[in-house]
Amino acid sequence: MRTGRAHTGLLDQVEVEYWGSMVPVSQVANVTLLDARTIGVKPFEGNMAAKVEKAIRDSNLGLNPAAVGDLIRVPMPMLTEERRKNLIKVVRGEAEEGRVSIRNVRRDANDHIKKLLKDKEISEDEARRGEEAVQN
Predict the structure, then answer these.
(1) Which residue has the higher pLDDT, 105 or 6?
(2) Minimal CB count within 10 Å: which of 54, 71, 112, 124?
(3) Coiled-coil annotation: which residues (predicted)?
(4) Structural domains in the chain?
(5) Would the CA dihedral through 99, 5, 61, 57 be positive or negative?
């Protein structure tokens, strides 16, 4: 997570509805840097501008896009103490999601190993090695 400076990757997680499905903004618009603190978003189709602007505004990034014709300007807010605290909350939430995801993958792998052991498809030594490999 970068602060204070604009980068096009900031909008990678923002999704917009396009023909009934949710797609990343980068698939329906050209995302460029206008200057060090401003991102420019130009939708490929003019009718998508309002949807893209709303998706950026509704994201939890704290951005306030402004449409100028068919170009959407996304200025980066200054890093205030309040914004910094909000960014910390966002990063902590993403970190927790990552930890939960890792726990789920490990649990599923261990369950699979136990099932193989129960069905006598692997030996106890192989099961122990597999469980150790999952933890590493």
Answers:
(1) 105
(2) 124
(3) 106-133
(4) 8-75 (3.30.1360.40), 81-135 (1.10.132.20)
(5) negative
